[in-house]
Design a protein that fits this description.
about 900 residues, alpha/beta, eight-stranded parallel sheet, 31 helices
């Protein structure tokens, strides 16, 4: 089963394994080679994503049984397809459903499973030897006084109860009344009496003090929590997978599935959270190659992909034994191709100017880099404060005797250093005495940036950190290594929370640029060249790396981004629309105390306009959508805006919600979407959508074409084969209507079998036809499946169009032996639609595609329609793009 493409499926109770098995004929007909599944191990009850695994030894019963997994694998095998499985080595979901976590709470640091979890047992002198659980709605004494804490018996065990939560009790601490009650239900009244009244509260408090955990107010989490988490999510506890015993126990089931041939590849979630990513990947690689079925040996290396967010200019480590990343760097490079560089600059300048007029306290005059740094500082000093305190203690232990050990100053310097890191993390692991050249460059840059902003005390701490990272040492220097290892594990979450989940919700001149791993103010001057260079590098070094355009974590779907990209072609027009809308809708904004601030603020209002433009249905010729569309989008936007303003952490947040501000935002949204109060605005929005949507649909087709033909393995996110304008989760995780898609694909197949040219022309006549994108994806996936060596192993060569409108084209060649594929797509198409009246045929008069001399006699055939193109040293673009705005020619 040759890996040529993947199709991502989010398995949960609403989409179990049996459902995936049902749609396999459809995925096969679409041209997919491998199903790419979300985690399958037992997760917290009701999980919609599977990243909160609670038992790595069992399959999740909510999505199916082992027998159903084997049935799916067998059906895949019959079709020559495979399964790529997402696994979660960094963390587990905790709570009553996790028996390993429960064992640690019950028996403490000496428990059998205590070594699984990264707990700093000695972090607090008051709570030494205890796991801190910040779960209460108030202080412990207050909660006890109110009688909110009590006891219950479950499965023959007395447990501590707090509303819907419960925790185990150490059996050695139970008084006789509770021991008897656990065994005999008739004795339960005596247990209730034991805990009743003022004396009962005192006894209960003493019982709590004897446990291996300490319950605190949930607001204490930032400074008091003492177990490492996934980012700042208290319900996801980090796992010490670097411990060989922990690795073996948590990977046994996954490796069993690999050995049985049920799984043909792995995707590693959050690899940057691991203490030693290289060591982990080396062990996993060795295990997978040894265990996979013998008939697969020698065919090709077992594919392993890592969820690794590469910052601009950062490269994946060549020594990692993987096939590549999950493809965010490709997503951002490809998105940049469809944005007009001068227009993007103009939009950014207008955005900053607008915010300066927005009133005191709401200006965004500095660069995105500054906003990102401020976001990291905010989370490091807030939700991740406990991690900073731990690092300060580790740094104190790593410093020479006599050095300053003022923990507050050490902590402040560490915060400045991490905030200045331009990447998610570095990879010093003790295998070499000095950091790699890449790490050294990153660290030196961070030191300079941090010291420019540091106080004198912080400046000295940053210098100490630089010395620890940049001077020779060996792995036996345990205090130093512990500090470096821990800092590297924390810097990734700081970037994810500070940039992805804070800064990207604050700074969005053109929101299509606000994606994971992206920079909204990144220079677009050489976007085409940068994509060519990245594709060529991938072809040489990572030819099987996943290529993403949509994922379960993207902020906006690719189709929505494609429409927003068009705004860069009309920056002045966009600015006038925004000015008009702000004037029209000023009366809908409410005044909120204190300070008389208008709600929503200017930034949130601007985000709403971009979001509504992206979600608005296409193909309505400037008319208002039906009432039921408004009903549906109102709920979606309300949920999205609440997430956006809380993630921004400017006026409200998840931990400190401002109900007044949030209610004001919702009221504004509802008024905005009511034709009775906002018809003039809505009609103007409809006219702008009608203007930009066709160009956005052309961008869609161009993106699909490059996505499927570029070096790497194209991944289609569930449902993305049809047009889909969606927002960040949960909006992008709504149920997919496969019956609808199956019917559409059957129609496409009938049309292409009967008259491919006629079918394509009919579809192109209405760009918003949902079958058009489906047809293009299907044709190209089949071409890739039919020519796996060409598209996976072929070279990559840029093709530079010639002629008056050559700047509106992007082209490249893939070649292997005598086989070749020529790919050409438009970019920034609105000008062509405006001035040429179209995007095919005569619109490209005089534009050619010069080819290498050895291809002058090649006979080209369209991979989409089957039409032939006569040989030429330079192909006429008008002939190549005669029916479709995009072309893939095979020779």
């Amino acid at each position: 089963m040759t890996l040529t493409s993947t199709y991502r499926i989010q398995h949960h109770a609403g989409h179990p394994l049996a459902k995936t098995r049902e749609i396999l004929p459809y995925l096969d007909a679409l041209g997919i080679s491998h199903v790419y599944s979300s985690p399958l191990l037992r997760a917290r009850p009701g999980s919609q994503h599977g990243y909160d695994v609670v038992d790595p030894a069992a399959i999740n019963p909510e999505i199916g049984s082992e027998e159903e997994l084997r049935a799916l694998a067998a059906e895949l095998r019959v079709r020559g397809m495979g399964l790529i499985l997402d696994i979660v080595p960094n963390h587990m979901g905790i709570g009553e459903s996790n028996p390993y976590w429960e064992d640690m709470l019950r028996h403490g640091r000496d428990a059998q499973y205590a070594p699984w979890f990264d707990v700093d047992w000695d972090a607090h002198p008051k709570f030494r030897g205890k796991v801190v659980l910040p779960v209460l709605g108030g202080a412990l004494d207050e909660v006890l006084e109110k009688g909110e804490l009590g006891l219950l018996v479950r499965d023959g065990e007395v447990r501590l109860r707090y509303y819907d939560h419960s925790w185990p009790l150490d059996p050695r601490t139970l008084p006789e009344e509770l021991e008897v009650a656990a065994l005999d239900p008739a004795a339960w009244p005596a247990a209730e009496a034991w805990a009743a009244g003022e004396e009962g509260a005192r006894r209960l408090r003493a019982l709590l003090d004897a446990q291996h955990y300490r319950l605190l107010h949930w607001r204490c989490a930032p400074q008091d929590i003492n177990y490492r988490r996934f980012f700042d999510v208290n319900e996801l506890a980090a796992v010490r997978v670097g411990d060989p015993a922990v690795y073996a126990a948590t990977h046994a089931r996954i490796l069993q599935w690999v050995g049985e041939g049920l799984v043909q590849g792995l995707r590693i979630d959050h690899v940057d959270g691991l203490r030693d990513p290289l060591g982990y990947l080396q062990r996993l690689r060795e295990d997978c190659e040894q265990l996979r079925p013998r008939d697969a040996h020698g065919v090709e290396e077992f594919p392993i992909f890592v969820e690794k967010i590469l910052s601009p200019g950062e490269a994946l480590r060549r020594e990692w034994p993987v096939q590549g990343t999950t493809g965010y760097e490709f997503l951002n490079d490809l998105e940049a191709l469809f944005i007009d560089r001068e227009g993007a600059v103009a939009i950014e300048e207008g955005y900053r100017r607008m915010l300066r007029l927005g009133g005191p306290g709401r200006e965004r005059e500095h660069s995105f880099a500054e906003v990102a740094r401020e976001g990291k500082l905010k989370v490091l000093r807030g939700p991740l404060r406990a991690d900073m305190q731990r690092l300060a203690r580790l740094l104190a232990g790593a410093l020479p005797r006599g050095a300053s050990h003022d923990l507050r100053t050490l902590q402040a310097g560490i915060v400045q250093f991490i905030a200045a890191l331009p990447v998610y993390r570095t990879y010093l692991d003790g295998r070499a005495a000095l950091p790699s050249a890449d790490d050294r460059a990153v660290l030196e840059r961070a030191v300079v940036t941090a010291q420019e902003r540091a106080t004198p005390g912080e400046h000295a701490v940053v210098a100490r950190i630089a010395e620890l990272f940049l001077t020779p040492f060996d792995a036996h220097d345990r205090p130093r290594k512990a500090f470096i290892d821990t800092l590297q594990q924390v810097s990734g979450p700081a970037t994810a929370k500070g940039v992805e989940d804070t800064a990207l919700y604050i700074y969005f001149p053109l929101a299509s640029r606000n994606e994971v791993g992206g920079e909204p103010d990144r220079s677009l001057h050489h976007a085409a060249r940068d994509l060519h260079e990245a594709n060529a590098h991938r072809a040489s070094h990572w030819p099987r790396s996943l290529l993403a355009t949509n994922t379960h974590d993207t902020k906006r779907s690719a189709d929505l981004r494609a429409r927003l990209d068009v705004l860069s072609e009309i920056p002045a027009e966009w600015a006038l629309h925004v000015q008009r809308w702000r004037r029209l809708n000023r009366g809908l904004r409410a005044t909120a105390a204190p300070g008389g601030m208008l709600v929503p603020d200017t930034n949130t209002e601007y985000l709403l306009y971009q979001t509504l433009l992206g979600l608005w249905p296409a193909g309505r010729r400037g008319e208002l959508p039906e009432a039921r569309w408004f009903d549906g989008v109102r709920a979606r936007l309300e949920e999205y805006l609440m997430k956006a303003v809380r993630e921004a952490k400017v006026h409200t947040s998840w931990t400190d919600p401002d109900a007044g501000y949030e209610q004001g935002v919702v009221r504004f949204l509802h008024a905005l979407l009511d034709p009775a109060t906002s018809r003039e605005f809505l009609e103007d929005m409809a006219r702008l959508v009608a203007r930009v949507a066709p160009a956005g649909l052309v961008n869609d087709l161009a993106r699909v074409t490059v996505h499927v033909t570029a070096p790497g393995t194209p991944d289609t996110y569930q449902g993305d084969e049809l047009l889909g304008h969606t927002l960040v989760d949960p909006d992008n995780r709504r149920p997919v209507n496969y019956e609808h898609r199956i019917a559409f694909l059957a129609e496409v197949e009938r049309g292409m079998a009967r008259d491919p040219v006629g079918a394509v022309r009919e579809l192109v006549a209405e760009l918003a036809n949902p079958r058009l994108k489906l047809m293009l994806l299907r044709q190209l996936l089949h071409a890739r499946r039919d020519e796996p060596e060409l598209f996976r192993e072929g070279s990559y060569e840029p093709v530079e169009p010639a002629g008056l409108r050559a700047g509106h084209l992007f082209g490249f060649l893939r070649r292997r032996g005598e086989r070749a594929a020529l790919v050409v797509v438009p970019r920034c198409p609105l000008a062509l639609l405006d001035h040429q009246g179209g995007i095919t045929g005569a619109a490209w008069e005089g534009v050619t595609l010069p080819l290498p001399a050895e291809l002058a006699a090649a006979r080209w055939r369209s991979a989409i329609t089957g039409e032939e193109i006569a040989p030429a040293q330079a192909l006429e673009v008008g002939a190549v793009l005669s029916d479709l705005p995009v072309a893939v020619l095979l020779a």
